[in-house]
Amino acid sequence: MRILLAFLCFASAASAADLRYWVEPCTRPETKCAEQDPLMAEWAFQDWARASAGKLHLERASQRRQANIRVHWAAANQGLYGEAVPFFEDGLHGFEVYVLPDLSGMGRDISQAVRLDSLLRDSIVYLTCLHEIGHALGLAHTNQFADIMYSFQFGGDIPEYFGRYRRQIKTRADIETVTGTSSNDRTRLVSILSR
């Protein structure tokens, strides 16, 4: 969190934080990234901007090296499901965010379900982007099942965690407007950005 607050201070303007983000194009076959996955990441950034009550301005960077938050598609052999790793490069503070788009290794129940339901698969990729970007914005895990920042280390019904979001959408386009954040997530973000 200290790293986030440091780069928010550098990037901050008046009462709002201005951050640049970059999303890796879906070009590396080993990641099994789907064509719409970069859009899921874009929508996750938009969701956090809306959640910030005007305190966070996010702008897409044309090049990775210009961005404070960089979303990469992880390959299964990297051993990552989702992760946010801080960096300091060429005077720029930020986070490298890794999201695994290949859900075949998430356990039999989920991997079978996503084969039958592409919107469940999109929901999981979207929610993973949202969660990891939340870490890049300074949010720690919670033990509240309703939160996007909930940690599976606390247990709970993982298929239901994703399923409750999936039931709110009828098309992929719905993901753009149906938030994956809870009121607690939003309150915590505004609190961080208000410091």
Task: Provide an overview of this structure.
Helix 3 packs across helix 4 (118-136). The model is unreliable at 1-15 (pLDDT under 50). The protein starts with a helix and ends with a helix. It has six helices and six strands; from the N terminus they run H-E-E-H-E-E-E-E-H-H-H-H. Strands 1, 2, 3, 4, 5 and 6 form a six-stranded mixed beta sheet that branches. With 195 residues, it is an alpha/beta fold.
What's this, in brief?
It contains 6 helices and 6 strands; from the N terminus they run H-E-E-H-E-E-E-E-H-H-H-H. It is of the alpha/beta class.
Q: Which overall shape is indicated by the principal axes computed on the Cα atoms?
A: globular
Distance between the first and last residues' Cα: 12 Å
Structural class: alpha/beta
What low-confidence regions span 5 or more consecutive residues with pLDDT below 50? Answer: 1-15
CATH architecture assignment name: 3-Layer(aba) Sandwich
What is the averaged pLDDT score? 90
**Portion of residues within helices:** 25-40%
Q: What is the number of E strands?
A: 6
Strand content: 15-25%
